[in-house]
Amino acid sequence: MRIVLLGTGGYHPNDRRHTACLMLPESGIIFDAGTSFFRVPQYMQTRDLQIFLTHAHLDHIVGLSFFLVPMLTGQVDSVKVYGEASKLDAIQAHLFSEEIFPLLPDYEFITLPEQVSVPEQGTLRHINLEHPGGSVGYRIDWPGHSLAYVTDTSHPEQHLEFVKGVDLLIHECYFPDEQAEWADKTGHSHTTPVAELARDAGVGKLVLTHIDPQQTGDDPVGIEVAQKLFPNTILGEDLMEIEF
């Protein structure tokens, strides 16, 4: 199974990172639709897409407005957009208001059920996360392997049971430990609690993502701190491909 990190930044794009979007090309599964969503067409391998939104903050949804041409030109047969009902209502009312973006792509908006069947005999579940306005985390279990995607949340320890034992955990790490106070204020995570979560949950690999766009260097979150607690930790980068 292969996942492509199309966008690994938070809040706004910078020269190194676009905002959140992850894609499993062979399955047509996409998580979030940030500014990096413009990259989706070059990776598509299916005629049907399932998009799972964590929440409706702009850095996670603006890319939905980038996909009009692929839909109008018949590059896909269907696109289902899953999310909480209030978030989907807000997207349709505001992002696609006539004054902002007058042509609504032919998306099928679906209120997120308790479970969703996904390709390759997978089952997707979600959990509510602590974040201003609310957010959800996702987990998919296939026969023989599993994935969890958790972003825009504070207090990672609260979802330990949900991610326990996954082969791949992709988790936001917006701040380094030195800015832990800001993590609490903004509803985001910092390095040590995320690495402790991966260690305590017994996951296979941890990928840190949703990085503060003000941090443009090679080590924006203190990767050595994370690796001391959980050695199999890597920093996500745009266009990184991971086999799991």
TrEMBL record:
<dbReference type="Pfam" id="PF12706">
    <property type="entry name" value="Lactamase_B_2"/>
</dbReference>
<keyword id="KW-0378">Hydrolase</keyword>
<feature type="domain" description="Metallo-beta-lactamase">
    <location>
        <begin position="29"/>
        <end position="211"/>
    </location>
</feature>
<dbReference type="InterPro" id="IPR001279">
    <property type="entry name" value="Metallo-B-lactamas"/>
</dbReference>
<dbReference type="GO" id="GO:0042781">
    <property type="term" value="F:3'-tRNA processing endoribonuclease activity"/>
</dbReference>
<protein>
    <submittedName>
        <fullName>Ribonuclease BN</fullName>
        <ecNumber>3.1.-.-</ecNumber>
    </submittedName>
</protein>
<dbReference type="InterPro" id="IPR036866">
    <property type="entry name" value="RibonucZ/Hydroxyglut_hydro"/>
</dbReference>
